[in-house]
User: Fold this.
Amino acid sequence: MARIIVITSGKGGVGKTTTAAALAMGLAQRGKRTVVIDFDVGLRNLDLIMGCERRVVYDFVNVINQEANLNQALIRDKRCDHLYVLPASQTRDKDALTKEGVGRILEELSQIYDFIVCDSPAGIEHGATMAMYFADDAVVVTNPEVSSVRDSDRMLGILSSKSRRAETNDEPIREFLLLTRYDPARVESGEMLSVEDVQEILSLNLLGIIPESKAVLTASNSGSPVILDRESDAGQAYGDMVARYLGEEVPHRFLHTEKKGFLSRLFRG
Amino acid sequence: MAVNFPNNVADGSKGFELKAASFTLPIIRLLDSDIEAVAARLGAKVEKAPDFFRNTPVVIDLSDFPSGAGPVGLPLLVGLLRGYGMIPFGVRGGNQEQNAAAEALELAILRDSYVRAGKSAANANSLESDAGTELEAEQLQPRSSGVSKGEPPPTRRVSTGSMVVARPVRSGQRVYASGGDLSIIAAVSSGAELMADGNIHVYGPLRGRALAGMNGNLDARIFCQDLQAELVSIAGHYRVSENIPAEMRGFPVQIFLDQKILRIEKL
Assistant:
């Protein structure tokens, strides 16, 4: 049976799709059979971030409507054999996602894969609730600022009351916090909430802290998940996140501004 | 509407006289249990004519309140009206339960005969067009524009008797302990709402709203370890965050009513 992971946040633009792509790629690189599903019907992005936008024939909604079977719609990643992408439809809206249809597809995928990563759309409407309904684990992506924290808090409330696990009185969804776009310099100057501030409000299991990094935008534009960029701080932070998700103890990095060495101070002022 | 007292026999002494008189009063006809929407509408209305509403007695009309819409939240509504300077003094058209709640708040119950009398008077005097019944004419309907149709309604757990919640109460969640105490052994986020007919205990930071004594119980209290609440209320007597003294913030406190005045005391 696969473990279903939803990447959610409530607020838009915090890095859900980047995180979904990185987590899926990271799991697949560790040999886990992984599929990542784009639930953002109508505003699909995951295929771009994964670099498979020119190979989309059938999509998630086609499979729900039984116009195509899963094997026709799944796109195998060219960099990693264990990773598949199920893209969203760009021509429908989120009402095309039915609970029965989504449940049937997840059930079918569960037989084959180890992990199913669901990339949730922003908001708390139908698309987002469909993405989280069947989840076993939730990664709540939050930026260190008050509106994002509040939206995450709202999302956590929905996770604990509107999911299948809540409705069947099953063990609750495991919830993890992922802080993204973290800028230690701005935290130190008081412009941004610190990890402690966010944890005081959300008090969740901290899965990782992804520093604000130019590598993320570069990676998105080139259609390559940032986790593949092992040189970058964001890529390494996502690597740590995947390890932590799989139960490894990894210390948190990128929490403080790097002390500038003598030479770099000399040359870069 | 008109209130007709029966003609009592006047006392022989000159100390006072009992007489009957009719008054024209604004009525708030409640159509939905969504107090927040009512509050928003009312706020806008009062802003337009603050003087009109100051010290104005009003009657709460529950005859059009849908029976399936949950509890009326009378304490809240009364607190709200008082907050805007109105003097809610009576309720009409309520069922037995609603009347009991109104009595607990020391509101007058205006019986059916008064309703009918009021209605006939309304027809006779065309009160509907009177400025005094502007509220009635416009009807306080919940605002629906701000809420998109796909949004799930706020979660709400209802139980009878006392309740213990060990998980954090998140923004947007509502927990109601009907007929008993509510204890939370976790944080209550800003935007969350706790309600109890009895006391509320929070063993963690209280950042949301806490409303104790929902059924009008003036002896209900709120206890919390770390007061950062947006709003606290006991039997409809409420205070918003702005009016909570800064020196109480972040401390363990109890909140209770003393002569109907909401008091916050450090523990």
In short: Chain A has 13 helices and eight strands. The first helix of chain A runs from residue 16 to 29. The mean pLDDT of chain A is 92. Chain A touches chain B at residues 94, 124-126, 129, 150, 153-154, 156-158, 160-162, 172, 200-201, 203 (CB under 8 Å).
